[in-house]
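Need the bound structure for manganese (II) ion, inputs here:
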Amino acid sequence: MTSGDRKFNVVIAGGGSTYTPGIVKMMLQHQADFPLASITLYDNDPDRQSVLGEALAIVMREEAPEVAFAYTTDPETAFTGKDFCMAHIRVGGYPMRQQDERIPLKHGCVGQETCGAGGIAYGMRSITGMLEIIDYMERYAPDCWMLNYSNPASIVAEACRVLRPTSKVINICDMPVGTRRRMSYIVGKEYDDLDVRYFGLNHFGWWTSVKDVHTGKDYLPQLLEYVGENGYLTQAAIDAQHMDESWQATHKKARDLVAVDPQFLPNTYLKYYLYPDYVVEHSDPNHTRADEVIEGRERDVFGAAREIVRKGTATGGEFTVDNHASFIVSLARAIAYNTHEVMLCIVENKGAISNFDDDAMVEVPCMVGSDGPEALCQGEIPTFERGLMQEQLAVEKLVVEAYIEKSYLKMWQALTLSKTIPSATVAKAILDDLIEANKGWWPELS
Ligand code: NAD
Ligand code: G6P
Ligand code: MN
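Answer from helper R.:
Posting the output first, comments after.
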């Protein structure tokens, strides 16, 4: 893709997502370095999408009348002529997220959007939705790149690797971006001042090095000491995202992750695997994170949209932008302009982690240019992290195999192997409840 004075066409798949307004606003802030010809929203739920679509039509008219804007549920209209698809679909919506979180908790196990049994259940739904939008993209816009946030990113990435190996899909996660923002605040620097090394699976990784990009100063000892005492909690509110009370508890829990593994800085999601008993004790099976999001982010974003439509103007600035939006726009820019910026992406290992499976989808720093991400070698990893990752990788691979083969047995094995589930007996009980709850969403297993 050449740049010059070219203007890009972007479709947002999952147009009705709570994250759509932030990404649209972020793209408007980047008109000088990532100029757009058009933004189109695509969703398969017309009612949900139209609330945001109507509000964003007003934002676009006021802030960027030169950029064409539309929202649609027709895939051909949505994808034709597009250069980038920014995807963030939630197959089954928040009602199914509630089930993913509540069912395992009722059996005494972690109930989480992307980790453990909940993430496995969500993965089985997401694969179908992801294949659908990838196929639309390839049919109507063969040169388009999909930059995908849709979760659970590790299972989605493995499904893409196996089922759509040549598709131009890049799977990403905003958690390391948010945590790195916290790290930079802790050491009194800006985000771009840090140079990091990282390895892992999605929501399952570690920073092995954090240095000053200008001076080479090593911040790891200082950060390990800080996180060992405070987790990633910071005094100032440095982001619009990950700020709810339950998120603060997660940032704080990183303290205990450093206690058991003091060498590296952990991804916050490791708490679900290393302290599952603690997580269950501090969860309410009748009011989980899905409920908090419905009562918080979803209410706020859709409330703001309705307010913009009611007033007929967005001049009050109701929509916020955050790390999540800045990362995906930077990624699109890196591809569009061949910048070779380094960012974390979820890619096939192929030796990047030298003592780990070549065909694992791993999250590592990548140099991103117009051919997509190129993984940077992270070398060998130690036994503890490798052992944890090996088990989790097998879980993710078994889920994708179970999806393809419609295999009850492989799903049972995946759940049994998950570090968040104590036995095959409990795994079977959870599986049977998940099958019941996911009728019509999962392939029928036998
Ligand atoms: P949401 O429910 O508000 O939005 C998702 C939208 O996707 C909905 O409007 C829904 O109708 C639509 N959708 C579902 N299936 C579809 C399909 N097959 N085709 C087109 N549209 C479809 O959810 P949200 O909380 O805004 O999150 C959106 C997604 O982004 C989730 O998967 C979430 O886990 C993910 N996410 C990932 C990261 C990351 O780090 N990778 C960060 C934040 C959010
Ligand atoms: C982080 C993760 C995402 C996840 C999100 C959940 O940003 O990286 O993968 O979807 O948190 O946040 P929520 O507020 O919906 O629980
Ligand atoms: Mn994530």
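Comments: Residues 116-140 form the longest helix (25 residues). The longest strand covers residues 204-212.
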